[in-house]
Design a protein that fits this description.
With 135 residues, the protein is an alpha+beta fold. It is built from 2 helices and 7 strands. It has a 4-stranded mixed beta sheet with strand order 4-1-6-5, with helices on one face. A 3-stranded antiparallel beta sheet has the order 3-2-7, with no helix packed on it.
């Protein structure tokens, strides 16, 4: 049986109703693919706590727990593990986004998400976000 890895992700949505995606930098697995910011949930952490920590480490912004709204999740079997990824929506944060891990970031319209290559686990989330951001 494959181990289950829990990775929390967030759709940061700006005032223009665009969502932030980040390109995985060279040297990381799946380099060059675009994804929603986030990371592994550490032992003893909730997914929300992991996101607060991860977006601060990766993007230099502060997100409060009450600003994270559960939205959807992905469940995907990779070769060596099974990924469970809760996705949260966040429309409010403090600070200016500053990529800190060599990644490129950009805000994109929901209708344009499908034109960016993404890891397989992220793909089922695209239609949900596209529909949310179209309203």
């Amino acid at each position: 049986m494959k181990p289950i890895v829990v990775v929390a992700a967030v759709a940061l949505i700006d005032a223009d109703n665009r969502v932030l995606i980040a390109e995985r930098p060279a040297g990381k697995s799946m380099a060059g693919l675009w994804e929603f910011p986030g990371g592994k949930v550490e032992p003893g952490e909730t997914p929300e706590q992991a996101l607060v920590r991860e977006v601060n480490e990766e993007l230099g912004i502060d997100v409060c727990l009450s600003c994270l709204a559960p939205f959807n999740f992905a469940s995907h079997a990779y070769d060596t593990f099974h990924l469970l990824m809760p996705l949260y929506i966040c429309r409010s944060w403090d600070g200016v986004i500053q990529p800190r891990e060599g990644q490129r970031t950009k805000f994109v319209r929901g209708r344009d998400l499908a034109s960016y290559p993404m890891p397989p686990a992220d793909l089922p989330l695209i239609p949900w976000l596209r529909d949310l951001l179209a309203s």
